[in-house]
Amino acid sequence: MPSAEPAYFDPLSTTDLTNTICERFERERTRPLINELPFFEGSGLYAIYCIAEGSDLYDPLIPFDIPVYVGKSHSHSSATGKPAKTSHPLWLRVGQHRKSIGEVESLRLEQFGIRILRTPDVHCDLGENGLRVGFQPVWNSELTGFGSNEQGSTTRSSARSRWDTVHPGRRRSFGAEPHDPEALRTAVRQRVARQVASCHLLPWRAHMLGPSSRSC
């Protein structure tokens, strides 16, 4: 029996805004990471995808358009409110990730692509949270450390990250190695299986037309 209460709708609710941003983001084309991005200014959202076979860990994600990593870059510091030190923080951030992947032995740049959407900082935060919570990308959840920056002697004395344990080769020095690489690979495979099984439940994909919705 239908509820006697009238429906409630807030077009500016954080949930609806997040779904709108995520849907718009997924309509952007995926650019091959092997190609250096043309220069552009601004901040916003980005996600890295496995787009070509060659990795037993990430190949199952390809047909479902599920990212391995989601990130953002702000135009202003969230702590101080001051403008970023550069007019092109998103372009720089993507370049750093491209370098990281290119340095490791177990990955090839041509296996990966990137999707980018420039947005205001407030929408960037909503979109990143929606994509991270919705997809739970493996490099954000299981293999943490991919997006970390080297900080001189602090990084050299810190433990090897989970990402660097499974994908060694970045030109950095590390301290202790506390992680079991085989256990991490098992955790990644389990996470990927859950992602593939649940991606069709993402609220913004239910309204999309195109490869993403068809795959899931």
UniProtKB/TrEMBL annotation:
Positions of the UniProt region annotated as Disordered: 146-180
Keywords noted in UniProt: Endonuclease, Hydrolase, Nuclease
Superkingdom of origin organism: Bacteria
Ranges of biased composition (kind: Polar residues): 146-160
InterPro entries: Restrct_endonuc_II_Eco29kI
GO molecular function per UniProt: endonuclease activity
UniProt-recorded name of the protein: Restriction endonuclease
